[in-house]
Amino acid sequence: MKLKTYVAKDLKEALSQVKKDLGPEAVILSTHSRNVPDNGSGGGRRQAVEVTAAADLNTLVDLEESRERTAALRNPGPSIQQIQEDLQELKGLLRGWLQQNGPPSWLLQHRELAILYRVLIKSRLDERVLLGWLQSLQKILAQGEHAPLTLKKAALGYLQDAITVINPWQTSSSRPHLWTFLGPTGVGKTTTIAKLAVRFALVENWRVGLISLDNQRLGAHDQLAAYGRIAGLPLLVAHDREDLVEAIQKLMEQDVILIDTPGRSPYAPELAAELQSWLGGLPDLKHHLVLNAAGQESHLAAVIHGYRVLPPTSYIVAKIDESSDFSGIFNLACQQRVPISYLTTGQRVPEDIELASREKLTNLLLRRTQPNNSQPNRRAFGLASCLRKV
Ligand SMILES: Nc1nc2c(ncn2[C@@H]2O[C@H](COP(=O)(O)OP(=O)(O)OP(=O)(O)O)[C@@H](O)[C@H]2O)c(=O)[nH]1
Ligand SMILES: [Mg+2]
To answer: Which CATH superfamily is domain 168-356 in?
Structure first.
């Protein structure tokens, strides 16, 4: 219990001081009228009220904590970056705990699933997907006995369903197909266009037109022009939006028009305005955002965020040959619900590109090699080898 005395000009003011200081639960023990020196009037005296009040110590502690919280809120709070770092640390702790403590006991009864679990937990798969996967398995297992193969199929099926794929050729029947290729510098946009253009023209026999918006660097469109010449394809260079509209008009007889764009940093403040001014609101354009398979999840998220003014029809995942950790792409494609169309697998034109499939994407996720691994080939976690052990 804590006792305190307050002097104020009247009872109302005294009670308000008590409430502010000791909280609404405070008990008034006594009130007195007092004659006190009037400091403001040069030696005179004035009437005042003296109130003695008591409060429970626990209440006072609560009150103090609540004041501290309010003060903390008034001061600038932790930065977004700090919150993200804390969240990452928590995720790391949770993942570490799961890794140390192994699969839940009900999963251990099914050896093949326990192996899959160990691969998934190391794959940095998004927690929500992992949790959903475990729940779906629990449901399957609760239904009764299953042959190992059926279980394996169901287990992989959940992962495959978490991600979507698309064949962009089938996204619309109107001609010409108008595809733009967007993404950061050097991610593989121009090479991907060259691969697709040569394949469409020489293998599928489609009429292909090329437009390069890549007018920023000297000779930027030379690379594409060279492939265009080899395959006998028209290439037009557009310096601004007006040029682009004109170029599209000129190529209207084609089956597909592939539009190359200059690489831009996702962190550039002017990016959204620039994309909008080049391509925003142009009808029938299907945007394909090219993402580097080897990119960190946080960087890939920044790219997706930076390019969000032009909602993508698909992600093209480039350079999968240079990546051993596919979790960033997998997690983001699941979260964003944007389908993956193509995977690029090397520098060769036109060989190194393929349509994405759910099986391939799940395989890429599960093949992740161990970090700090001095003998990557021996210890590589191929899905096939993992399942062979079952
Ligand atoms: N390993 C590997 N390299 C690739 C792949 N695709 C493209 N590259 C290489 O990546 C480099 C950059 O490719 P570009 O196609 O010029 O990239 P870009 O996105 O057009 O680059 P900017 O126009 O500068 O933004 C080149 O050396 C390509 O050969 C791939 O799938 N795997
Ligand atoms: Mg380029």
So the answer is: P-loop containing nucleotide triphosphate hydrolases (3.40.50.300)
